[in-house]
Structure formats: C-alpha cells, structure tokens
Amino acid sequence: MRLIPYNKTHCRMLYEWRTVPLARAFSLNDSLFTYEEHKNWFEKILSSPRIMGFVLMDGVTPAAHIRFDKLENSDRYLISFASNPDLLRRGYASKLMEMAFLRPELPADAVFEAEVLPENEASLKTLLKSGFINDGRIFVNGKEILRFIKKK
Predict the structure, then answer these.
(1) Which of 77, 88, 89, 122 is 20 to 30 A removed from 20 (C-alpha atoms)?
(2) What is the distance between the alpha carbons of residues 48 and 118, in angstroms, rounded to a whole number?
C-alpha cells in the first residue's frame, strides 16, 4: 500500500465517496452539494498551501483518503478522512492513519484535531486506535460533535 497526494483525477472519486448515504449521515455538514460545487471546492483544496490531502492506494484501488487543513496562525491541523464506501471494515482507515502521520510534509511539532459525530463508531474506533484522545465536545447547529486531539 502507498499514499499518493491528491490530484485532479481524485475529484470525481471523492465526490462519489462524499455523496453516498452513509457518508452523508456521518458528515458534520449535512448540506447537499452539486458536483460543480464539489469541483470548485476541490480545486481550491489543490491550490491551497494550507491543505494537504492523500489517497491510500491498495495496488491500483483507492482505499481511503485523508485531508490535513492547517489552522490559521497555528501548528494545528484539522483532519478529515474516509474509506472507499465499497471497502468498509477492512482496516484501511487505520492503515491510512498509520501511514499519513509519518509524512515528512507534516511538521514534527504538529498537533492534529478531529471532529466526529458520536454515532460514527467506525471513525471513533479509528481515531482511538491511532492515538487520538478525547478533547471534549462542542455543539454546532444543534449537533453534538466529539473533538479528538493527537500530537505527532
């Protein structure tokens, strides 16, 4: 398995992954969006110096992805990750985490944050297995969101 940086060819794939019903159910932002809106957002992701994204490849098959959004004036990164919806419960998210946090592009003193809905048991399990610790909870638009933190 290997990690490759996001590129333009990942746009459609990530849109499809983000729009499956299970992904929508666990999304912090449950607004619907068109492919055109996603494409514009993804182009900004690719051109931003503050954002890094990687796809975990198992041979020629994209298995999972992770995005690191550097927070303004901080050594912190907000992460977002997901597995290929056709390959759930196969350990890809854990492998993704294991490999992603070793990336040399991430500073040695980086701190990572993750926000997850309490009912997203798979992501909670992955975060805890990857060394994240619970950092409390917040409420956004009436939704409870659990916060996790990890140092590199």
Answers:
(1) 77
(2) 30
CA distance 125 to 132: 10
How long a stretch of residues is the chain? 152
Residue 61 belongs to domain spanning = 2-151
Q: List per-residue pLDDT tens for the chain, 152 residues long.
A: 999 999 999 999 999 999 998 888 888 887 889 999 999 999 999 999 999 999 999 999 999 999 999 999 899 999 999 999 999 999 999 999 999 999 999 999 999 999 999 999 999 999 999 999 999 999 988 899 999 999 98
CATH code assigned at 81:
3.40.630.30
* C-alpha radius of gyration, the chain, whole number: 15
Q: Could you tell me how far CA 29 lies from the centroid of its own chain?
A: 13
Total domains in the chain come to 1
